[in-house]
Design goal:
The complex is a heterodimer of chains A (about 250) and B (about 90). By secondary structure, chain A is an alpha/beta fold. Chain A is about 40% helix and about 25% strand. In chain A, strand 9 and strand 10 form a beta hairpin. The radius of gyration of chain A is 17 Å and the shape is globular. Chain B has one domain: Enolase-like, domain 1 (2-Layer Sandwich). Helices cover about 35% and strands about 30% of the residues of chain B. By secondary structure, chain B is of the alpha+beta class. In chain B, a hairpin with a 7-residue loop joins strand 1 and strand 2. Chain B is globular and about 30 Å long. Chain B starts with a strand and ends with a helix. Chain B has a three-stranded antiparallel β-sheet. In chain B, strands 4-5 form a two-stranded antiparallel ribbon. In chain B, helix 2 packs antiparallel against helix 3. The chains are: A alpha/beta (about 250), B alpha+beta (about 90). Chains A and B meet through strand 9 of A and strand 3 and strand 4 of B.
Chain lengths: ~250, ~90
Amino acid sequence: MKIWRLLDLEFKDPYMNLAVEEAIPRAVGERKAPPTLRLWRNDKTVVIGCFQKAEQEVDLDTCREMGIKVVKRFTGGGAVYHDHGNLNYALSLPKDYLGVPQDYFEIYRHICGAVVLSLNNLGVPASFTPVNDITVNGMKISGTAASMRWGAIFLHGCLLVSTNLEILANVLKPPPQKFQHKAVKSVRKRVTNISEYLGRKVSMEEVKSFIINGFSEWFSIEFETGTLTQYEKELSKSLYSTKYSRDEWNLG
Amino acid sequence: MKISRDYRSEKSKLIRITIEAENNKIKYVEIHGDFFIYPEDSLKEIENSLKGLTLEENVIRQRLKALFDKMNIVAIGLSPEDLTKAIVGADS
């Protein structure tokens, strides 16, 4: 049985969380770290896609008033709101990892399969909605973003466990008026979370254990809990100071 | 003067263009949105390659299609066609 590293690792500082998020696939791609699943959370943070411009998407004044930080990630896609009721999962594999597709559309389908299985095992009848969403009854419960860079295949996503779903709608700017007819009326109605769906309070630890077991089953591997390597720690610090803690990156 | 335009079609994500043209030539263009484009660095190359081009649908479409082919670009929610329309300010 193959052994992958499990990193249950989060920081209070969202900039550091995103710096570590980039350091891991870089290290895995350089074969300086094993295949890794990281589980982590951010508190009160808007995370925007790397092709978005913060001022176009986010009400920065409201964020400031509410103590919400805005951070840009290194993958594309749209803005998401993180709080402690949201679980982030991030899988980093070496590029030529056996059995993992090399085509973007198939990477999404394949890796999201592990999340869908985990949710199904938990009693949530979630399914994969191409290209990159996981939904239950047509409502989004997890969004994902993938990248193949630095010799790695990387996919991360956020899973709504008991997130305050009202806040995202309050801090995101509404889409331009002329496109509003194309979307379902509000962000709030298009998303759900696990607790809301199951009608009971689901603990983060419970969800984590289902994700860990679901990934093990899907990929036929075993996890060993690990820590960041020295190389990853140094890389994270450097990415923090040169990129993720800087306005040029987050707001530029 | 820089102007901003938003574009979205049934198949595209929201594409947000900031553009400055002079004598119908593109002087500056920035492309933002919630799409995915691979390799990620290709977006900057696209922006750079549009500078100096005539702001005309056929010219831009041709340049973008050539660039997407040359760089083996894979994009989700940002086809050359949608991007062309977003840049020239066509109706969604």
